[in-house]
Write a structure and sequence with these properties.
Length: 202
């Protein structure tokens, strides 16, 4: 009889222990991972790797071949680093300007124009560049022109045909300064800010 009692007591405590364990695992607060924000400043260094930029891009458009977006992510990191430009800012601006490489406005894919450079109307659809690297370089150089108050020596050959113009009339420190400056859209900076906030999660 005593043996049966102890067996019952053991089973009861085991049941209580397992119930408490299950309840605790189901109700415990999930561990929060700290997210490092992406800088909104044009000058500086990006914090995202090529793979992180790719993953961010594919969350919006998975129809672009991996080889294409891998190339683009790598080019933005390389070309931005060469001129002291924030690659995270430049990359999300490319995504905004091209609709994640869907284009659809004045600029077409064959132009390798990833920032709407020179695109104004049907008679002025924008600049053409011979390949992706040249187009990315022109974009980076144009950002550098906005972010500096005078022409400085570039570390890469000049390919932006409008490089000397912004120094005379434009200046921007952060993405918010590009609203009504780079683009006429008053929400331009807010849109870039939102994309950078999203990119920080990758």
């Amino acid at each position: 009889m005593r043996h049966i009692f102890y067996s019952f007591l053991t089973c009861f405590f085991l049941f209580c222990f397992l119930s408490a364990l299950i309840f605790t695992s189901c109700t415990s607060t999930p561990v929060q991972t700290e997210v490092t924000p992406c800088s909104r400043e044009l000058l500086g260094s990006g914090i995202k790797s090529s793979v992180q930029l790719q993953n961010f891009f594919f969350a919006h458009n998975s129809d672009i071949p991996l080889s294409k977006i891998s190339l683009m992510a790598g080019l933005y990191i390389e070309e931005a680093a060469a001129e002291g430009i924030n690659s995270d800012v430049a990359f999300v601006q490319m995504c905004l300007e091209t609709g994640f490489l869907t284009f659809g406005n004045l600029v077409v894919p064959e132009m390798n124009n990833f920032c709407g450079l020179g695109a104004m109307d049907a008679e002025h659809p924008g600049e053409y560049f011979k390949d992706e690297r040249t187009g990315v370089r022109a974009h980076i150089q144009h950002l550098q022109a906005y972010a500096t108050t005078e022409e400085v020596s570039l570390n890469q050959p000049l390919v932006d045909p409008r490089y000397s113009w912004p120094h005379k009339v434009k200046f921007a420190v952060t993405v918010h300064d590009l609203a009504g400056n780079w683009a006429t859209d008053p929400e331009y900076g807010v849109k870039l800010d939102g994309l950078l906030e999203e990119l920080a999660l990758y």
